[in-house]
Amino acid sequence: MTNKVDLPLQERVQLLLAGDAEMLADPFPTWNQLRDEHPVWRLSDAVVLSRYKDVRELLGDDNLLYSRAATKHSQRYEEARERFSVEGRDAFDAVLDQEFQQLVRLDPPDHPRIKALVQPPFALRSLKAEMEEKVTARVTQGLDELAAVDGVVDFKRFAYTLPLTVLGDLLGIPLGDLEQIHEWAKRIAENKFNADSEESALEGADAYRGLMDYIESLLERQRASGATTGLIAALIDSERSGAMTHDESKAMVALMIFAGHETTSNLLTIGMLSLLTNRDQWEALVAEPDLAVKAVEELTRFVTPAHFLPYVAAQAREIDGVQIEVGDTVIGVLAAANRDPSVFTNPDSLDIQRRESRMHIGFGMGTHSCLGAGLARMEAVALFRQMAERFPDAQLAEQPFEWGGRSLRTPLTLPLVLNAR
User: Fold this and answer.
1) What are the DSSP calls for 25-62, one per residue?
2) CA-based Rg of the chain, rounded to a whole angstrom?
3) For residue 114, what are the contacts with CB-CB under 8 A and spacing of at least 6?
4) DSSP structure class, residue 70
5) Taking 50 as the threshold, does the pLDDT of residue 26 lie above it?
6) Running DSSP on this structure, what letter comes out for residue 123?
């Protein structure tokens, strides 16, 4: 039986884009080969970019060359609509309607309008004032609970829960509701954008209905409470002034639940895994826990929480002899770009003191850079610093791990022994 890692490059790339679990276990050899041999590559229904300079341009483009909103009507999705039954088509469209109201998938003029309204609570000064102590306290509380466990702990579970509790603090979500939020978010993440499965469309639409009903009640409670600071208050004020619609407010909360939850969890989980499998780097952090600030930048590059992002070409152009037509799906592989040897020395090595780490594009670029990047950094720095201080002898309990996801690649569990000797 042929191992999938021995398949031709094109088949391996297509498997990674589809989220094949076996390929997700170690995707970087395939992404590296793609970048080195075919940095601009046309597959059957998309053009894939994997070189740093091209992906950086894609991410930083202000919707001149590429469109995010137009992805909703890409050829792949239109073909899915034709294959699905009426029920499946309605469910698929319901998921896309929710996704394409979110800031990350908007084009001008909607994107700059909404981002300007919601950005103030995420400014560094505001985050430090409102969230830094809360984040540190949540990390301490969570690690206290892990320390009380006798034997193996599932660090993945903790790394998934931490961003949720921080989001609860940020958005005013009661702790008792977070498990249900997690379940909806998990079902949506596993099923959205799956143009190959009508069952996934139905599952994703059902989860979205539950989540959006909850967000509606959350906004109503916050409105009634008269909150004056934070993201929810900013959304409510924008609604009252007519600067934002109610549906746009709900979409912004949904985006924060996904962006501040799934991607941060990946950074924390795979970041910890990477440190413990590169023992010299873990020991450097243990010796100097304040290196956590630099370590988070290097881990964001090395891990790349979201491996690829799709766009649609808004203009025809040619790159390296490959013609891109208006309406073509264009996929930027951030995971390949963040290991481009023309930018990063020995890019497949983890080096938490790497000088060029901050050149990574793990949080996007330009106007579409990640709104919650500051909060994600804050959580990661607090966690890795405290882990190094409290559990210097931490080790992996077992390998290999089962992997899941698609662009948001993640191990399903991460068993650790915290005080191994």
Assistant:
1) TS-HHHHHHHHHH-SEEE-SS-EEE-SHHHHHHHHH--
2) 21
3) 103, 106, 244, 248, 252
4) G
5) yes
6) S
Residue 420 has pLDDT above 70, yes or no: no
CA dihedral 77, 305, 339, 69 (to 10 degrees): 30
- pLDDT of 218 > 80? The answer is yes
With 80 as the cut, is the pLDDT of residue 269 above it? yes
Tokens of 57: 């341009």
Residue listed under structure tokens 């004020």? 237
- Residue 228's identity, in one-letter code, is T
User: What DSSP letter does each residue of 344-378 carry, written as one string?
Assistant: SSSTTS--TT-TTGGG--TT--GGGS-TTHHHHHH
CA-CA distance, 395 to 418, in Å (whole number)?
6
pLDDT exceeds cutoff 80 at 201: yes
Q: Please name the residues in contact with 341: beta carbons below 8 A apart, sequence gap of 6 or more.
A: 347
Mean pLDDT of 81-104: 91
Write out the residue range of the structural domain in which residue 134 sits.
4-417
Half-sphere exposure of 82 (CA within 13 A, CB side): 7
SS3 for 174? coil
143 contacts: CB under 8 Å, gap ≥ 6 = 158, 386, 387, 390, 391
- Mutual orientation of helices 279-287 and 373-390 as an angle, nearest 10°? 90
State which H helix or E strand residue 104 sits in.
none
The span from the CA of 105 to the CA of 255, in Å, is 10
Mean pLDDT of 181-209: 85
d(C-alpha 338, C-alpha 304), whole Å: 7
The rounded mean pLDDT for the chain is 89
What CATH number is given to the structural domain containing 88? 1.10.630.10
- Per-residue pLDDT of 358-374, as tens digits, reads 999 999 887 778 888 89
Continuous H helices in 305-356? 334-337
Q: How far is CA 320 from the centre of its chain?
A: 29
Our count of domains for the chain comes to 1
Tokens for 56, please give them: 């950086």
